Amino acid sequence: MKTAIYPGSFDPVTYGHLDIIERSAKLAEVLYVGILRNNSKKPLFSVEERIEMLEHETAHLPNVKVITFDGLLVDFARSVNAQVLVRGLRAVTDFEYELQMSQTNRKIAPEVDTIFLTTNLKYAYLSSSIVKEVAFYQGDISAFVPPYVAEKIHQKMG
Ligand code: ADP
């Protein structure tokens, strides 16, 4: 794998995302972590804040670059000459949507392939939305996100 993209919302980045990033950074020469700009979900963090948190948490990985993109993922893949899209699979509930997306992308851009990394079992239940929900009710989120990200979430929620 030469150049790969791991796309997502990362609102905010969790230990589950970081596990996928660390593992795929070992498989690719260059790994772009791509934050989707035109997302229909209303985010908690701005794109700039999400970039900053991801850069902070991936600073020890020299071949990982955090960037943002608009529009179709495969167009973004072509623009950075990436051959592979990386997605994480937590449970069967992720599978149906991911299968549909990967087949659609393959149809539009046959030269770009999608690979799936299964979640580390430690993080199988973990999603950005669960973290936000727990934080909203002042629950302990230290098992879900790194301390730096936890601090940003607490600041954001006052
Ligand atoms: P999206 O809005 O594209 O689903 P997310 O930021 O929620 O963006 O997720 C990005 C990718 O990371 C997706 O492939 C998702 O399945 C994966 N992912 C999210 N949480 C985990 C986790 N705990 N373990 C493994 N993969 C995960």
TL;DR of this structure?
With about 160 residues, the protein is of the alpha/beta class. The protein is built from six helices and five strands. It has a five-stranded parallel β-sheet with strand order 3-2-1-4-5, with helices on both faces.
Verbal overview:
- The protein has 158 residues and is of the alpha/beta class.
- It has a single domain (3-124), classed as Rossmann fold (3-Layer(aba) Sandwich), CATH 3.40.50.620.
- 43% of the residues lie in helices and 20% in strands.
- The chain has helices at 15-27, 47-57, 73-79, 92-108, 128-136, 147-157; strands spanning 3-8, 30-36, 64-69, 84-89, 113-118.
- It has a five-stranded parallel sheet with strand order 3-2-1-4-5, with helices on both faces.
- The longest helix has 17 residues, at 92-108.
- The protein is globular, with a radius of gyration of 15 Å.
- It starts with a strand and ends with a helix.
- The relative contact order is 0.20.
- The mean pLDDT is 95.
- Adenosine-5'-diphosphate (ADP) is lined by residues 8-10, 14, 16-17, 20, 87-88, 90, 94, 119, 123, 126-128.
What does the secondary structure layout of this molecule look like, with pairings?
Layout lengths: L2 E6 L6 H13 L2 E7 L10 H11 L6 E6 L3 H7 L4 E6 L2 H17 L4 E6 L9 H9 L10 H11 L1
Parallel strand pairs: 1-2, 1-4, 2-3, 4-5
Bound molecules: adenosine-5'-diphosphate.
How many strands in all? Answer: 5
How many structural domains in the coordinates? Answer: 1
- Superfamily at the CATH H level? HUPs
Q: N-to-C SSE series? A: EHEHEHEHEHH
Biggest sheet features: 5 strands, parallel
Distance between the termini: 43 Å
Rg over CA atoms, rounded to whole Å, is: 15 Å
CATH-defined architecture: 3-Layer(aba) Sandwich
Structural class: alpha/beta
Helix content: 40-55%
% residues in beta strands? 15-25%
Average of the residue pLDDT scores: 95
CATH topology category name: Rossmann fold
Record the strand order, biggest sheet. 3-2-1-4-5
What is bound: which ligands?
Answer: adenosine-5'-diphosphate
The CATH C-level class name: Alpha Beta
